Amino acid sequence: MKAKLFALFMVFALLLPVRAMADTEDAPRGHNALRKLCRGFANVLFGIVEMPNQVTKVTAEHGGGAGVTYGVSKGFVRWMGREVTGVYDVVTFPVPFPRGYKPIMKPEFPADDYEP
Known about the structure:
Number of strands: 0
Radius of gyration: 21 Å
Strand content: under 5%
Distance between the termini: 66 Å
């Protein structure tokens, strides 16, 4: 009897984390095809915001020399990433991929983490 109870307990203990992980894959509320289309246009049109944003962030963390070198290069790479993901979002806006129209880049919009 104790062995059966222990085995049942172990099955539930092993399956419970699987269920908890499945909940994190649910689509965010409010994400739909129109939001994906608008996000794509915003990334294409305003992706350049990544340049001054990354320069400002790197300068604040590591100083002016790093901001001029590493900040500019990091901003350029993120800007190009925004452009590519923006075009992808515009072209594939009716398709719910990634699951539930989730954004590919974080933050979702280019100006969400802008620090003047």
